[in-house]
């Protein structure tokens, strides 16, 4: 068979080409695992409106990164968990996120839920960039992997007391709700008032109310008995609405101030705006009052149909900061990422909500709080600045 050898050679050549195509040109490379960021926020419970408004802000930053090619050649993935502002739920979801191998935790709104997750993430070596929680208890363990975008309750308490003086307040009643955030800011305010020269501001009473109660007659009676001209409530919006309603119904005409936990548009869904008129609030930077966030706010509203609320800028910034640190670290190694966060300079990344540099204790330098006042059913910049 004189033609057999050329035919066999041709078949062999064809098979070689076919096999080469299967092993190279026809295969798809398996993409590397994604860079996972974990966000524990309340998606149920009384603080759910804030937590659910933070999620789109997280996703905006994640989507922006993925459109730009991800980070370190990997796509970015957001892993969310509903802590419901409950410590046990937060710890359970934190452990799940550790098992999911997240690179950085970018969650944390309610301090009571965030504090018990510190050890979970620290033991796993995972850095935490916390957008909302700001209790001083977050700094108590002295972990070098915890970074706060919301100042601390001690700083906020000092700012609040320094503002009360130009407002003319002399007799102060502090009211908290028993949670970590609220009690530490109330304690900080009491300490700051005690440091005032010549007893300019006296703490006439320090009270604790119950979360979720239908009314607070005992608190109202104590405020009236103390002849207070200022009530500083350090808890959250749901209880703030009930307390303000009860105080005004009882005829209390003194000033009322809310910590950043109560500065929430949800206040006006549970309270007649007329009764909230003139209530003061101290807040972290809010999108509507931050000129550099104008375009970002428009994008957020286009995506969600609603304006960005409290802690949305901080949620967005937590992701931006985390991804920038991973990029500069050139690795997902937790220790290297932590070191990159520590070394962050203003030229590395621009944050909407404040400076991008951190002090040794993990707080921003400097921390910013904005004085507000309720007018016509909305929080607006206050005319008196501390």
Q: Key features?
A:
386 residues; single chain; 3-stranded parallel beta sheet; Rossmann fold; alpha/beta
What would you say this structure looks like, in words?
The chain is α/β, with parallel strands linked by helices and about 375 residues long. The chain has two domains: about 35-150 and about 290-340, Response regulator (Rossmann fold, 3-Layer(aba) Sandwich), CATH 3.40.50.2300; about 155-285 and about 370-380, Response regulator (Rossmann fold). Helices cover about 40% and strands about 15% of the residues. The protein has helices at about 5-25, 50-65, 85-100, 110-115, 115-125, 155-165, 180-195, 215-225, 235-250, 275, 295-305, 310-330, 335-340; strands spanning about 35-40, 75-80, 105, 130, 145-150, 170-175, 200-210, 230-235, 255-260, 280-285, 370-375, 380. The strands form three sheets. A seven-stranded mixed sheet has the order 7-6-8-9-10-11-12, with helices on both faces. A three-stranded parallel sheet has the order 2-1-3. Strand 1, helix 2 (about 50-65) and strand 2 form a beta-alpha-beta unit. Helix 12 packs across helix 13 (about 335-340). The radius of gyration is 26 Å and the shape is elongated.
């Amino acid at each position: 068979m004189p033609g057999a050898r050329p035919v066999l050679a041709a078949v062999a050549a064809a098979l070689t080409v076919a096999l080469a195509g299967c092993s190279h040109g026809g295969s798809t490379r398996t993409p590397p695992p994604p860079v996972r960021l974990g966000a524990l926020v309340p998606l149920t419970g009384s603080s759910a409106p804030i937590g659910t408004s933070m999620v789109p802000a997280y996703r905006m930053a994640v989507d922006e990164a993925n459109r730009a090619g991800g980070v370190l050649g990997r796509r970015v993935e957001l892993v969310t968990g509903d802590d419901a502002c409950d410590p046990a739920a937060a710890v359970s979801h934190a452990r799940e996120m550790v098992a999911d191998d997240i690179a950085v935790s970018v969650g944390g709104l309610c301090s009571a839920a965030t504090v018990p997750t510190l050890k979970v993430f620290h033991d796993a070596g995972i850095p935490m960039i916390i957008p909302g929680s700001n209790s001083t208890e977050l700094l108590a363990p002295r972990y070098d992997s915890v970074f706060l975008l919301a100042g601390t309750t001690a700083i906020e308490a000092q700012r609040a007391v320094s503002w009360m003086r130009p407002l003319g307040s002399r007799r102060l009643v502090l009211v908290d709700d028993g949670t970590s955030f609220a009690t530490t800011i109330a304690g900080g305010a009491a300490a700051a008032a005690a440091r005032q020269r010549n007893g300019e501001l006296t703490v006439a009473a320090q009270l604790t109310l119950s979360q979720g109660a239908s009314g607070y007659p005992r608190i109202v009676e104590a405020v009236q008995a103390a002849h207070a001209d200022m009530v500083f409530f350090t808890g959250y919006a749901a209880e703030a609405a009930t307390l303000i309603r009860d105080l005004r119904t009882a005829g209390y005409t003194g000033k009322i101030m809310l910590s950043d936990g109560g500065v929430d548009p949800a206040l006006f869904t549970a309270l007649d705006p007329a009764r909230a008129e003139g209530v003061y609030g101290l807040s972290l930077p809010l999108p509507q009052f931050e000129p550099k966030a104008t375009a970002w706010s428009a994008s957020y509203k286009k995506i969600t149909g609603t304006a960005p609320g409290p802690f949305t800028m901080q949620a967005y910034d937590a992701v931006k900061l985390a991804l920038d640190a991973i990029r500069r670290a050139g690795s997902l190694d937790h220790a290297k990422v932590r070191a990159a966060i520590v070394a962050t300079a203003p030229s590395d990344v621009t944050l909407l909500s404040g400076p991008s540099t951190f002090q040794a204790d993990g707080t921003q330098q400097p921390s910013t709080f904005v004085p507000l006042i309720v007018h016509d059913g909305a929080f607006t910049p206050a005319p008196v600045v501390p």
